[in-house]
Write a structure and sequence with these properties.
- The protein has helices spanning about 5, 10-25, 30-35, 40-55, 60-85, 90-100, 105-110, 115-130, 145-160, 170-185, 190-210, 215-240, 250-265.
- The chain is mainly α.
- α4 packs antiparallel against α5.
Amino acid sequence: MGNDEQRLPGGGMTRLRAVMARLRGPDGCPWDREQTLETLKPCLLEEAHELIEAMEEGAPVPHLEELGDVLLQVVFQSQIREERGDFTLDDVAHGLCDKLVLRHPHVFGDVAVNGSADVLRNWEAIKKVEKSDRASVLDGVPRSLPALLRAQRMQAKASRVGFDWPDAAGPLAKITEEAAELQQAAASGSSVEALRHEAGDLLFSVVNLCRFLEVDAEQALQACADRFGRRFRHVEARAKADGIEMKDTPLALLDRYWEEAKREET
């Protein structure tokens, strides 16, 4: 097959499946042939994080590349399943299409909605029928998610079935309550386990407030960590330029460097 034929519009997925089958074939790549669904788990996780990083940077070329790497993981796993006679990549695509059509009756059917809130409620109701074996609406939230994201997803799902504060004043008051309980536990010399419990309650409450404010808690903390990293590196650089050791420097001077970094950002 010539290169022009390989790059025909609309032929990318067909070509990708053929390339993957060749890599896994008898005369293919030894590494690709050795991979299993188990060995691909860390690859998928890493590629997902790299994709998110490319999305945050915003440049189209890295975004395109990282989307391809995530797509490779889908194709790779589908190829392994096809070799076992379980399903094919086409089955994955058709299953996804069926799900999208079923869960959007306001687009593909005659159901009327009044905004995205109705869409989400319908989505959860349809999922409940589809996943009738699930004992809880929370069963669909993977435990392997990052903790902040998992907490926010659990809170959102609980909210869709009516378990929620009426407004942001509820979680805001809860933050004050949980902060006081953590302070009391710390002052009374509580065990590490007890402190972990109270700290978790406080973090969960902060995440809940973020949800009410329509702020993604995971992204907010990532952005905060990025800011801290930039400012701390500035402090390190200023201390080095002044010929002083940070550990021997009064905090007041380090704070001055920190404020310099903040001013430079604004």
